[in-house]
Specification:
With 331 residues, the chain is of the alpha+beta class. It has a single domain, classed as 4-Layer Sandwich (L-amino peptidase D-ALA esterase/amidase), CATH 3.60.70. Helices cover 21% and strands 28% of the residues. The chain is built from 7 helices and 16 strands. A hairpin with a 6-residue loop joins strand 12 and strand 13. Helix 5 packs across helix 7. It starts with a strand and ends in a 33-residue tail after the last helix.
Amino acid sequence: MISGIRVGHATDPIGLTGVTVVLADRPAVGGVAIRGWAVGIHGLEFLDPRHLVPSLDAIVLAGGSAFGLESIWGVMQWLEESGKGFRTSQTVVPHVAGAILYDLGVGDHRVRPDHAMGYAAAAAAAEGPVAEGNVGAGTGATVGKLRGAACAMKGGLGCATARLGEVAVAAIVAVNAVGDVRDPETGWLIAGTRDAPDGRILIDTAAALAAGAPPPGFRPVNTTIGIVATTAALDKTEASALADLAVEGFGRALSPPHLPSDGDALFVLSVGDERADLRELGAVAAGVVANAIVRGVTQAVSLPGLPAVRDLPPLKERPAPGPRAAGRPKG
């Protein structure tokens, strides 16, 4: 990934859930952008500019719905044992933010990311290339749920990096959207709702909704969550402003993003000292987020009843792309 962070996964291939942890090598600065109406987040107070503690030590992405928040305390234990956190007279107190997605309908719903899984993910965190696809928070992720799980596809966890001069930017995204995934450059549908439970042809979710198809019910099963890490020096207000700019990457690659049944959220983690224009940095970050979303589905592998991108016909053999859609549908 980038200098100053380490990434670790814990994956349960039987229960089909997992945890992804991004650790900062030194106290970092965090921010967040929240979209959708089904968000599950821990640690918002640590990201508030008014909070006494100026820094953040880690960010957690987890499956398991609200149960998965337990994994955060495993990460905190590992950080305390490692001497990382806000120092008090008795010990260090780690500050960790996190978000969860719903994957209980994919594997064994009784298996959720817990304290031990969070600890294992933190202990496994390392520099360098990050495993993608069916790992960590992307293990049970799915996309294309307009017609329910029977016509959905496998989502996953994706990563991407870029530079703005001397500033490095990276994104890690767990893609679990109700909508489709499009190529942000061409508009071609890459993954999404299939035409039938045994089908390999994609319908256009945004077009179907615009034509009057019933929207998904209000259930917290559709969430894309991610982290942008950068070596740019940001304060908390700037970090949240960058998150607001970077989350535009969801709209470039998800079609449509931020439905009422989505719980989309994007964190920012500032781990460096470089200066950068915030608008320029936001444009780069949005592109990195969009690319990470695409990799989340292209690097995934199928599960029973959930084909992956590699199981579909090549893009050149699919119908021409329809109009892109962004934001909430009307009505």
